[in-house]
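HUMAN: Forgive my ignorance: could you write out one protein's sequence and backbone structure tokens?

ASSISTANT:
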Amino acid sequence: MQQRAAPHRNVTDSTGRSLLQKVAGSAIGLDLEMPIATGEKRRRIYLDSTASTLRLGVVQDVLDRYQPYYANTHSTVHFSARLSTEEYRWAHDMVLDFVNADQSRYTAFFVGSGATGGMNRVAATLAGRLPGRDVVITSIMEHHSNDLPHRKHFKTVVHAPPESGSTSMGCVDVKAIERALEAHKGRVAYVSVTGVSNVTGIINPIHEIAALAHAHGALMVVDAAQMIAHVPIRMSGNVDPGEDIDVVVFSGHKIYAPGSPGVVVARRELFEGLEPIEVGGGMVDDVWLDRYTPTAALPDREEAGTPNISGAIGLGAALYALHKIGMDVVEEDEAALMRLALQRLCALPGIALYGDCDMERYPRAGAISFNVRGMHHALTAAILNDYYNIAVRNQCFCAHPYVREMVSEALAEADDALSAAELEALAEMQRGMVRASFGVYSTQADVEMLAKALGDIAGNRERYEALYTQLPNGDFQHKSFRFEPRQFFNVRNAVDGWLERS
């Protein structure tokens, strides 16, 4: 089949910025208004993009245009099947182009369960590919999806610490990774680190780490779930080939195409020749009663069953739109927003910020985590929602060791006079944090409103605390204000309404 990778960008930065403004403004849900505890309505400020981004209007438009032609893939006999098959194949090519992966050397395939499904597939496959290497090096910064799969399939998992910055923890300690490679020489299968922390937004030097891993005969795997939407990724074609990345894993719901599948991009030889982890329709050349023959073709051998066709096409649309804009433009725009957010929040009394705030030394992308000192993180998140309609996330963000370490560090620095028991009591109350995270649709006005809200909460802590009750699950509920989801959306009511109107 003819390859239809996206064209290389040939637009000026001014054109890219114009396209960025148009695409960002199309995100679905930006004008959503909800009632708040004061009795008024406010437009939602969506600062939960690290969990899932809003769907871009261009993605929805593409899916609406495609839907009348929908049919299953794996056939080109009838018109719709041929169209679906071709566009589904193109989505793979678009992924490879977006992460700058040479199509002759790399393959891309889709999996279920987002990046988690992808990382489980990678760990299981590489354990079979590299039976003599039973060690994986990762970091304390990782999301559970880039930790637990390695623990399941390998004998030893080493967690490298972050560097100690001037104010707090920085990026992963590259020297610690090098020491681990030396200590386990000849046994390390791969190094797997997050490109961008889902907690602090701190960017890790993945190419520097890749060069170290390759020098020690190990592979380099990058969890790009948070990186993919914020900064350019170059898997191959680096000036130093040792800095090329062997495997990248991400998910479409983190890059403006909610509901799309997880994605694995990997060097072809890592997945060729092994028994596929999942078997079923579409990944075999022939089947007999007593045996079957998996196809040698990638990505087919890794995509058993009917794929998430619409999800893949929606993801391809999002990647193509961002490709036209230029991820360098996206990165520059969001870096300016991050600097503003850090500046505003650092100036607020009573706010603890996590991760080193020096963006010159430790660049950030996408997320900032914080606490109001002395206040439970769940209460802070509830107040931001109930009184300002600012959507944030709290708790540990599936990165428990990293969050616990940073919270304890911040509490110790806040009051050296506290005893160990007092610190532990405070740490237990704040065994988590609040995260504000941004996307291409986030604005300076959103940041200013977040800073204003946090200033109000920190300055009126006791008044707000008196308005809430803590629930058994740890969340906080306003004593008089209630939000009833069914008043706004309910599947059964929506179906009933459609049936009545039709």
Summary: Residues 1-10 have pLDDT under 50 and may be disordered.
